[in-house]
């Protein structure tokens, strides 16, 4: 099941055509991802304080329709796969209230320590994130 995070499009996030600029989507995805992690009991800031970083290793987005200033959008985020040192998340951006798909994409993250060498996530984190793995079929 996807975690939903609601965002209202701000004027400064739109381009000259009046739609959300493509550079904003990674920020929306990040906001939804950190909210999901917080809801699972492992806020990203807490992981960092514990010596775990999750740098982005892959990002992709496909645009379907444009969101406009003052639109409310839900960013649906779900864990696609969870390993000891890798996470892959899926995102869908949909307009509220009609549910129209505006964009979809994914991110992949590696778990590293402060020295940027691979570092295995604690078992309780892997277990918690694993409970959020999407079981939906494409």
Which secondary structure elements does this structure contain, and how are they paired or packed?
Blueprint: E1 3-8, H1 25-39, H2 44-49, E2 56-63, E3 72-82, E4 86-96, E5 101-110, H3 123-130
Antiparallel strand pairs: 1-3, 2-5, 3-4, 4-5
Structure description:
- This protein is an alpha+beta fold and 138 residues long.
- It has a single domain (3-130), classed as Hotdog Thioesterase (Thiol Ester Dehydrase, Chain A, Roll).
- It has helices spanning 25-39, 44-49, 123-130, and strands spanning 3-8, 56-63, 72-82, 86-96, 101-110.
- The chain has a 5-stranded antiparallel sheet with strand order 1-3-4-5-2.
- A hairpin with a 4-residue loop joins strand 4 (86-96) and strand 5 (101-110).
- The chain starts with a strand and ends in an 8-residue tail after the last helix.
- The mean pLDDT is 93.
């Amino acid at each position: 099941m996807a975690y939903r995070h609601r965002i209202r499009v701000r004027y400064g996030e739109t381009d000259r055509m009046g739609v959300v600029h493509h550079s904003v989507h990674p920020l929306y995805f990040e906001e939804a991802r950190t909210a999901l992690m917080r809801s699972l009991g492992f806020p990203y800031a807490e992981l960092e304080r514990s010596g775990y970083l999750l740098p982005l290793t892959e990002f992709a987005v496909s645009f379907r329709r444009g969101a406009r200033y003052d639109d409310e959008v839900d960013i649906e985020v779900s864990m696609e796969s969870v390993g000891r040192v890798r996470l892959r998340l899926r995102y869908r951006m949909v307009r509220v209230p009609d549910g129209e798909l505006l964009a979809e994409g994914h991110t992949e993250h590696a778990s590293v320590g402060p020295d940027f060498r691979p570092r295995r996530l604690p078992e309780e984190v892997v277990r918690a994130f694993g409970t959020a793995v999407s079981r939906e079929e494409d």
